Amino acid sequence: METIYDHLNSINDNLDNNIYLQALNSAKSGIIITDNRQPDNPIIYCNKSFEEITGYLHNEIIGHNCRFLQAQDRTQPEREMIKDAVKNGKECHLEIRNYRKNGTLFWNELIISPVRNKEGEVTHFIGVQNDITDRKKAENELREEKASAEKKILERTKELHDNEAFLSSIIQTVRESLLVLDSDYKVLSANTHFLNSFKVTPEDTVGKILFELGNHQWDIEPLKELLTKILPTNNPVIDFEVEHDFPYIGRKIMLVNAYRVEFEGQYKDRILIAIEDITEKKEIDRRKDDFLSIASHELKTPLTTIKGFVQLLKRMAPEEASDKFLTTLDKVSVNVERLNNLISELLDTSKIQSGNIEIHNEPFKIDTLIRDTVENLSLATDYKINISSNTNATIFGDELQISQVINNLISNAIKYSPGSDKIDVYCNRVGHFVKVSVTDYGMGISPQDQSKIFERFFRARDIQKKFPGMGIGLYICHEIIAKHNGTLWVESEIGAGSTFNFTLPIIKENRNGR
């Protein structure tokens, strides 16, 4: 019997007969299909409307469980209703709070339907979602209109005055350059920090069009396009980097954030622009990267020599050498290898930052790579590493780098689960991707640290005290997977272990399976 997965593959592979896929993609509702036969019921298909509603790209959705849309809002009773429906293979219809990729809330009307095979077993679930945020907003507005008109006017007037006063106090006291513009991009207010930073006066600034200030130094085409084309669509401009040569102060690199402030009455349609000068930070980062690159290269040469001498000493050890001598030599060898790995990671980080990391792409079997990597690691640990990987999938990528990612994730799983003795490695197909998961049963990671764990040099405080390291291994893994058009993420709870997952696109296979 042909499965939904096979049917979807046949639809995608045969572009002349893709009417079903076109029908799904033309639907206004977001549609997903999950595979109930796989652990955690992962998403194996989503249509275009689902991507548009959630703000996530296709490769950021595939392989996840649907609960990722609730982010940290986990106490909703509707989550238990969904869990119960999936567990019992039932249909359910409910409304739940979800969050887009940019963190904004939207209300989701969700219909979940099970798909059964001939034996009556639930093999898949089909989920249909509709964005009902506007309806919820309208319902809330109707409730608010029950109050008396006079009271609403008085409260709104007071609120507007309070907001304006509050906004003015922020603008003048914050240690960041801030501007308030009207809908025509005329400067209504500039705080002291802006005036001092850019060596201008209130007379030169207030009442002038932003793009006409001074010698038109703010008439920067990419910034102008963002403010005039994107901001009117209610999409904020976040961390837009601007590099420009300003009069009197020279070249500056800035992060610009812009938001529409939607008041009513005389304060309608204000634009708030925050400008952070990151010139010095960029220069410090550049010097740090240069230092890491130079230091790593300089350390590599003498370390290679030391490593060679240690290997020579081990081969030349006299027969009557004491156990203490041999044990000491082994410890030296282990620590030299550890130092060599640290320097290699620093070199990888330097290459990533400079854009010089090399990727040698060739087809390889992911199942074989996982088994070979785990076999090498098993020789150096007492942990039981369980493998489930029978995808027969071929990946086009740098086999050595993907092996480095798997090696790092398993090594971390061992390192951060000292009270456990097993690691689970699972690989399966999800749509046109493979999903690799490494699960440990150790200390877990807090929600606040999960959002930063893939940043360069980040290490959680409690981990810093107990385990050595520089905090660059996961950063390197994240960048390698990103360069292979995949995604890397973590799911964890304190005291309940962690699961690191990543996806990689599968080479499209023809009808002969090659």
Automatic annotation (TrEMBL):
From what superkingdom does this record's organism come? Bacteria
| Compartment(s) where it occurs, according to its Swiss-Prot or TrEMBL record | Membrane
Alphabetical UniProt keywords: ATP-binding, Coiled coil, Kinase, Membrane, Nucleotide-binding, Phosphoprotein, Transferase, Transmembrane, Transmembrane helix, Two-component regulatory system
What is any one of the record's Gene Ontology cellular component terms? Answer: membrane
Q: Which residues form a coiled coil?
A: 128-164
PAS domain residues are: 16-89, 163-234
Question: Which coarse location class describes where this protein primarily resides?
Answer: membrane
Sorted alphabetically, the Gene Ontology BP terms of this entry are:
osmosensory signaling via phosphorelay pathway
Identify the residues that the record assigns to the PAC domain, covering every copy: 92-144
Q: Which Gene3D superfamilies match?
A: 1.10.287.130, Histidine kinase-like ATPase, C-terminal domain, PAS domain
User: Where is each Histidine kinase domain found?
Assistant: 294-508
GO function terms (MF aspect): ATP binding; phosphorelay response regulator activity; phosphorelay sensor kinase activity; protein kinase activator activity
Q: What is its EC number?
A: 2.7.13.3
Q: Which reaction does it catalyse?
A: ATP + protein L-histidine = ADP + protein N-phospho-L-histidine
Annotated membrane topology: Multi-pass membrane protein
Which NCBIfam families does the protein's record reference? Answer: sensory_box
Q: What is this protein called?
A: histidine kinase
- What species does this protein belong to? Chryseobacterium indoltheticum
